[in-house]
Amino acid sequence: MGREKGPVCVTGGTGYIGSWLIKVLFEQGYSVHTTVRPDPDNKRDLSFLTSLPGADGRHKIFRADLSHPESYDAAIQGCKGVLHVAAPMDFEDNEPEAVVTQRAVDGALGILKACLIL
Ligand SMILES: NC(=O)c1ccc[n+]([C@@H]2O[C@H](COP(=O)([O-])OP(=O)(O)OC[C@H]3O[C@@H](n4cnc5c(N)ncnc54)[C@H](OP(=O)(O)O)[C@@H]3O)[C@@H](O)[C@H]2O)c1
Questions:
Q1: Which residues belong to any copy of the NAD(P)-binding domain (predicted)?
Q2: Which pLDDT belongs to residue 2?
Q3: Is residue 1 predicted with pLDDT exceeding 70?
Q4: Alpha-helix runs per DSSP H in 1-118
Q5: pLDDT tens sequence across 20-30
Q6: Ligand 1: residue whose CA is nearest its atom 27
Q7: Is 118 in the pocket of ligand 1 (CB under 6 A)?
Q8: Which CATH superfamily hosts domain 5-117?
């Protein structure tokens, strides 16, 4: 394996696109800062991420939510790049579209701000 690269932050690490990106980043020798949504009871099984080949010693998992844009700061700090693929999905229409869209916009703006500052 070549020299270690990164870290790269991947938001929405539990998602379809996010988890594939993480897998490919490890394959390419990057270290990764993954964000997943807060899980107060710590019950969520993240072994599909932590057991990825290449994850050992190269993977840090952070808790962040798009509703709290500043929650991404810690994961982004020190990163060479950010792949922002966390996205609010509301297939059951539990919330008005405008609310979901605003959450996505605010989250993305917070992440961009963190990229500029950190
Ligand atoms: N899948 C595709 O083929 C495809 C193609 C083109 C573009 N895209 C775009 O790529 C992005 C990701 O798609 P995907 O298929 O990977 O979706 P996904 O599997 O539903 O993943 C969405 C991710 O966002 C996280 N998330 C949802 N609400 C959040 C919140 N409030 N705060 C923080 N994280 C939150 C989810 O966390 P939880 O696991 O906790 O819910 C999950 O990790 C979307 O913008 C989508 O439109 C996808």
A1: 10-115
A2: 54
A3: no
A4: 16-27, 47-50, 73-76, 97-117
A5: 999 999 999 99
A6: 88
A7: no
A8: NAD(P)-binding Rossmann-like Domain (3.40.50.720)
